[in-house]
Fold these 2 entries.
Entry 1:
Amino acid sequence: MKQLTDPLIDKNPVAVHILGICSALAVTTSMATALTMSVALTVVVTLAAGLISALRSHIPNQIRIIVQLTIIATLVILADLLLQGFAHDMSQRLTVFVSLIATNCIVLGRTEAYAMHNPPLPSMIDALGNGLGYSLVLMSVAFIRELFGAGSLFGIQILITQAQGGWFVPLRLMLLAPSAFIILGLLVWALRSWRGRLAEKPDFAPRDTGSEASS
Amino acid sequence: MRPGLLRDDLAAILALLPPLAWLWSQDHWVASRLLFCAVLIFGWQALFAQVRRQGMGLHGAVAALLVALFAPMGVPFWQLALGVSFGMVLGEAIFGGRGRNFVQPVALTFAFMAFSFADQPWRQGPDLPLIAILPALALLVITGQARLTVLAGFAAGLAGVSALIAPEQMTMLITGTLLLALLFLTADPAVSGATSLGRLAYGVLAGGLTALFAASGPVFGAVVFATLLAQIFAPLLDHIAIVIHSAWMHHRARRLRNG
């Protein structure tokens, strides 16, 4: 069970290992795109981990990255085509980011680090946990960005904006890319304050001042 | 009383009183804005000082004065609260307080506001007369809080780029607002470079960018964004200045040794 729950908070791929930032920032302007992206990535990473783990003793070590990428890319293309076929509008809103799952560090990281050395079932649980950890961060960031940037959640108006006769003034910054960095940064800060051992040791120790050294 | 109080903060506060008095004669709300910003900024600083077991200075008053002066008239207080909290916490407090930050927190506050709230003219800045800022110029230069190298570099950059792209905008750039923003935001000693050559280059960069941005927008917004951009480059400019200096010293030592 630790394989499933650890990546949610303590080993979260986005907030602790800082992986997969690019797509996490690009699709979080609204909850709907973030949810679609989360589901797509979770499905791809779980299936890829299972397939690669089942094939792990047959994959030659020298070309393992190429084989892993081929399997991942196949699954990503499948997911992309499914989205284009059954949710065309959503696929238009996500632009290239679903096909970019193929280069997402979380997917390759889990298959390379875990699925290559473990049986299929634990690998899939581990990958599912990481997918859910990614989804958790994506949904949190998207919740803040959509609520304060547009006053809505999943496209349903929660806060009535001034343009519609209400009181709420949308924060335009929330819909721009920098806000995703800021929110993610605050999230990482909060997480590391809460779980102190996640913080790295400082690279440089501050020099003692005279008064502190003498005391 | 902190030993640096007379040298650091008091001069800056005194320098901001003439523009404050001028603005107060135009718009009495500036007093309540100032009080609100001061309470908020000192609150944040006290919180972080408590957590980090550090002391506190009076420089929060300078920041509060600057925000109150530059904010548009009739701005809602909740916007002010959001912007000031953002600027003070993410621009200064998380780095460990004043002197360890690398962007000017007040400039960051206004950049955040300009991006976030389109319903208020955050980039506009007040209409301060030049004469109200001259005491600040004298006080800050004499106490060394606005280095002449930065000011000279800024003037050179501004004049140079203006002459290239829009010679006619030069005269309308020289306003009290530009001078006040230059003195307190751009020439802030904590973030404007640590070497003479670095400061000069930083000033030229900030001035040139200001002239460039002012060609398509209000002057105050141009100074704020030019300052932020230049401040990010200030450590790099310092590094280049140090490399140049040490290469020159090596060269000189070798020449002296070999006669």
Entry 2:
Amino acid sequence: MTEPEHVDANALAGPLSEILSVDLTAAERRCSVCGACGVFAELHVTVDGPGLVASCPVCRTLVLRLVRTPDSVWVDLGGTGVVRVRLET
Amino acid sequence: MVAWRPATLAADRWETDSARTLVLDVPGWPGHRAGQHVDVRLTAEDGYTAQRGYSVASADEGERIELTVQRVEGGEVSSYLVDVFAPGDAVEVRGPLGGWFVWDAASPDPVVLVGGGSGVVPLMAMVRERRRVGSRALFRVLYSVRMPEDRYYRGELGAHRPGDGGVDLFVAYTRRAPEASPRGPGRLGAAELNTHGFPAEFAPVCFVCGPTGFVETASDALVALGHDPRRVRTERFGSGGGAR
Amino acid sequence: MNVVTRGFRGRGGQDPARVPPGQYETHDFPVLSAGPTPRVDTGEWTFSVEAETGRTRVWTWEEFRALPQERPRVDIHCVTRWSKLDTDWEGVSLDVLLEDVETTAEYALASSYGGYTTNLPLQDLTDGQAWIVHTFDGEPLAPEHGGPARLIVPHLYFWKSAKWVRGISLLHQDEPGFWEQAGYHDYGDPWREQRYRGD
């Protein structure tokens, strides 16, 4: 094995649902570093560490990290870039 | 915030020696779209908890959902759910989760479903939802599985049930094929994705689900065949097999 | 209040003298990751120690491999709840690497190729408690386990044992690392279950 096993950011839907009222995984995003456009769910997420780490599938920039402790959700959205959430109309 | 809800085992079915479908009663279940998943949480008497994600296998049918769980070697959650969990016992579920890997039941677009191993679970939900709503969208299902006895949903998927007209199934056995099969064992290749899927000019929506390596290979092949990457939606399970 | 699931016991039956509370023993070596695996060629690899004064010592791979080597056999404890007993490593004690460094600092921040960081008290890196290792179980350390070289500090949770380590900075004040910024404990003693901030 040469890479840690990653999954899609679909796996973030549950943890993020604890703090967000919209489903971010279906939102469109533009990478803050490489400019790649895509959907949040297409991020690569490693789930086998102390927390969840999402990175850009194109440039591998760290997009988000999330830690669930017994009483808190800690989330760093520092690399998220621009996100578009479509509203129900 | 999506609430945790108690979910009681109402019934179960064995799909294979190591995979079990759990029929759960979830009071207050708000309904789901085909392809979505849930988080399942187990709590021991001493307060220890463990949780994993599982795709929903059933169509949107009231307050009852079905999950199919594959036993994973050393997996504390899957081992419990496959071997110990008994009718009447309760776990907690949170969901439905995820808005990307979902089939829009109102869309007439053709659909290519590519599943590796237990990755067939959310694809089965799409076939079932298609049947439930009476959709005419054309479905082509490509199912990669090691050997005949590893197939899930044998009496249903590809069995030409009423309402499943327009759903075609191709099974690629990777280790051992049935004796009568003209296709020997081998991996699902790009040529088969082309032949048994839809051509890119038909602009199908493609859903690819399974272990991470399988999904990478199959989705890369679809894009190489000319499919719009934005219409190739993926759900990687990691290497564990059973967990979402 | 969670619903208790009848018949679910988690993983019991651990040796309380060897396995800290809330941990279970594994015989695998799970990969503990925080994103993509950096590729570091030993021809370009360096390890540095930067004192709070800015004075920096740098070792190339050849220089590092020429230092006195030790073979610690230790138990490791990951905050994701697995523990692995009697693991065999080979590498250089931090006592050797810190020997000639003039410092009055009390804290250290380890940094990795790929951007990972983790913080520790400096005194937890000395007196035979920490190593920069290049070999696991007699084999060169694989990239997914932190190769070419990683830090190991086995008496703290394993996220402190930075993979792909490239250097250590000595600081007067504690500066939280990658996981410590995001809710994990600044010290991380497995025997006191210091998993999260406030534990």
